[in-house]
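Predict structure. Chain length: 156.
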Amino acid sequence: MNPPTHPRHRQPLLTAIILVFLALTLWAVDQARRKVSPVIDREYYAHGLTFNQTELEQTAANTRGWTLKMRIAGPSLETFLSDGSGRPVTGAKGDLVILGSHSGANPPLGLPLREQDRGHYLASLPEGLSGQGQVQAQVSFSLDGARIHRTMMLNF
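Prediction complete.
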């Protein structure tokens, strides 16, 4: 009795499939490496690690009903922070971070928001922003475990 014979035509087909898979994988890795966008926020992963803390702070600010109104007044950014009753929130620590234009030419710039009057905070904008078009910025305020954070586009 003769032993059964196995067709050998399957091995080249399997080899070809594996080679095609490897070639497509290498092509995809090359495309991902070449077409990656520039890093906009170098602290992206640090923000993710503090998500739970930030979420608790945001919930505290929402519970208090904080609202934030902003406007550009000459060379300054005016910010008005009020609670759910419309009363000004005083004593908060405020920060303005100018992330720069879409071209990424300028590094992020942090500026303090100083309280000028009850609930009225002011940051002096740096010279040279005019003519840059749209500039991305972030404003955040914190007080007693509550935090409000806004991202915006400033047009110059």
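Summary: Helices lie at 10-34, 44-49, 51-64.
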